[in-house]
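In the design runs reported in the main text, the only information available to the sequence generator was the tokenized backbone. The following block is the verbatim input for one such run; it is reproduced so that readers can re-run the procedure and compare outputs position by position.
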């Protein structure tokens, strides 16, 4: 089992920045892909981006490309989502997730992930 705990959400003004953290515990994540998703009220959960735990390869969805950076820190078993130039439409609950199948095209699909955090709210004021 893997436990994921997100933190770092909150209220920020448009144009501001936030860094979300996802701390993992339990079994090793060395072969996992890690994804950051978001879900706004009335909308489907969508992938924001992902990172391969082993190689550090990253993928960014068009919705936030150029404004986010995903990184991981092995020593802390933590994945980060740095978000800049935030817009009101970025407001959502942000989730991290782990996919035991590793890196690949499937990472864009929420159903492919085995473990999910509880989510952290991001609110962006205009």
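Verbatim output:
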């Amino acid at each position: 089992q893997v436990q994921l705990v997100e933190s770092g959400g909150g209220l920020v003004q448009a144009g501001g920045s936030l860094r979300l953290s996802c701390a993992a515990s339990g079994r090793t994540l060395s072969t996992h892909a890690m994804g950051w998703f978001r879900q706004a009220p009335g909308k489907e959960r969508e992938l924001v981006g992902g990172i391969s735990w082993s190689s550090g390869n990253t993928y960014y969805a068009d919705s936030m490309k150029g404004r986010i950076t995903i990184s991981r820190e092995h020593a802390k078993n933590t994945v980060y989502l740095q978000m800049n130039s935030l817009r009101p439409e970025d407001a959502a609950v942000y989730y991290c997730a782990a996919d035991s199948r590793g890196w690949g095209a499937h990472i864009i699909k929420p159903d492919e992930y085995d473990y999910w955090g509880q989510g952290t709210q991001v609110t962006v004021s205009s």
